[in-house]
Amino acid sequence: MTINYLKPNFKELWSVCKLDQDNYIDRDGRSRSKTLAIKKVCNAILLNKGIYLRIEKATRVPWDLVAAIHFKECSLRLNGMLHNGEPLNIKSRIVPIGVGPFANFEESAIHALKRRGCDKIKTWDEPTCLEFAEGYNGKGYRKKGILSPYVFGFTNLSDEQGGYPKDHVWDSTYPYRRPGVAAILIYMRENKL
Predict the structure, then answer these.
(1) What does the radius of gyration of the chain's CA atoms come to, in whole angstroms?
(2) Which end of the chain is less congested by CB atoms within 10 angstroms, N or C?
(3) In sequence order, what are the residues at sequence separation of 6 or more whose Cβ sits closer than 8 angstroms to the Cβ of residue 89?
(4) 165: cis peptide before it, omega within 30°?
């Protein structure tokens, strides 16, 4: 398969996307199983499934996609904005600047998803979920000639090398050590969680 990095075909990418069975090196230099890391994240997600279902009801964004974005932006903390992980009780200081404060995580999530145009999407199939997730995080990876590890980390479509350690700062040696949205969706849907 030839990938057009400037304009990815998410339907084609979803059709070939699989969980990566390899290990990764964590921040402490230890070898860890990607599969176990994904499983651990998904089990933690289930603890707040009720919250994600309420957000889905308010936005129509599938609950497991909301959960995957929550993991990517806030490490599943309920005291952070879905926009960027900053505390709920402040106006955000990083992209997007000036949103908030919010009374709770649900309020911030609904605001963030609607701000990203979720109400314009009619059908939430898997390719649409991946494209939405890429747009949510940003399309800067396209210009670097790689698929977004935010979306494809810990799948066969990412080597987890290169990233943005902070907004607008590219580092070609930055190791991406977290499951991406696609890995979470695959695991959740394959295991009917």
Answers:
(1) 16
(2) N
(3) 100, 101, 102
(4) no
Between 126-137 and 181-190, two packed helices, what is the crossing angle to 10 degrees? 150
Domain extents in the chain: 10-190
* Residue bearing tokens 């979920």: 129
Give SS3 for 50: helix
CB atoms within 10 A of CB 37: 18
Q: Quick: pLDDT tens for 112-156.
A: 999 999 999 999 999 999 999 999 999 999 999 999 999 999 999
Contacts of residue 127, defined as CB under 8 A and 6 or more positions apart, other chains included, come to: 10, 11, 13, 14
DSSP state of 119: G
C-beta of residue 57 within 8 angstroms of C-beta of residue 49: no
The amino acid at 111: H
Structure tokens at 49: 């499934």
